[in-house]
Structures are given as C-alpha cells and as structure tokens.
Specification:
The chain is of the alpha/beta class. 43% of the residues lie in helices and 19% in strands.
C-alpha cells in the first residue's frame, strides 16, 4: 500500500528540512514535493486565480506521483493552515490503495521567532515573514491532523517522528 504524507506547518517550523531528510535517509522509493515549488513567482501575487492555479499544479503532480509504480511513499509539504486547503487537495487526489498521513508541524512562538530571525539575518527570508508566520501558528491546533511539536527537536528527530507515523 502506498503512503501519502501531507505535512503542513507555518513558515519556519521545519517542514522542508524534515521532509528532505525523511525522504533521503529514512524512506526508500519515495518522492518529495514542496508546495512552494509550484508557486515560485516574482512578483508573488495572491489572487483567486493564482490560488486555484497552485492547488491545480500541486494536485497534478501528486496524482502523477501516486500513479507512478516507482514510488511507495509520496511526501508533500506546504503551509496548509486551514482544513479547507487539506480537504480540497485530498478531494482532487486518487488515494485508492493509499494510506494518507496528515500532519501539522508546530513549535513554540519562541522557537519560531528564533528560527525565522536566523533566516532573516542570513538573508534567506524577508522580515515580514515573522509576523505572518506567528499569526498562522495557532491555526494548526484546529486541524484534523496529527500534531508534532518541533520545539527543541533536531531535524533528524522530527523526520524520525514523521517516519514512525
């Protein structure tokens, strides 16, 4: 049976790093998709049209990965801060014969501020990410997902917690 991980979390919580490690070191025959790769536009414009486009892009790729016999596990991460986003994506996927594991990575406000400030200082993120990410953090508690608190965890520990699900 194939496995599909849907891993959400606010910016800076460790989604991409943990998913890369999960695929590269803990899983065999896996493929990883970061939703941000489906919407890397300059300027970044959020409209109803662009939101629909990115979900369509994501679902097209995920369905192709799920149909491909080379992969046993598909790992997808994206912000996914609303249940409606998760439900919409799942409604467009052919998950027959697939175990879906929906996860939200969370962390303390202090851990999030520290991680994001480090990225801002290194020029990896814009300063406005801090306010946007902190505002989304409490939204994950309301989702119908498994919660993993990444505060104080290494990337490897987070990836191991995902692997055990």
């Amino acid at each position: 049976m194939k496995r599909l991980y849907l891993i959400g979390g606010t910016m800076g919580v460790g989604k991409t790093a943990a998913c890369k490690l999960l695929c590269r070191q803990k899983l065999s025959n896996s493929v990883f998709l970061d939703g941000d790769w489906c919407w890397d536009a300059h300027p970044f414009t959020v409209t109803e049209e662009t939101k629909e486009m990115v979900v369509d892009n994501i679902c097209h790729l995920l369905n192709n990965f799920l149909r491909c016999s080379a992969y046993q596990t598909v790992v997808f991460c994206w912000v996914m801060h609303e249940q409606a986003i998760i439900d919409d994506i799942l409604s467009r996927l052919d998950t027959a014969g697939c175990r879906v594991v929906a996860v939200s990575l969370t962390c303390s406000e202090q851990a999030l501020k520290s991680r994001l400030q480090r990225d801002i200082d290194e020029g990896l993120r814009m300063p406005d990410v801090l306010e946007r990410s902190l505002a989304r953090l409490p939204l994950y508690e309301a989702l119908g997902t498994v919660k993993i608190d990444t505060s104080g965890k290494t990337i490897d520990e987070t990836a191991e917690a995902l692997y055990r699900l």
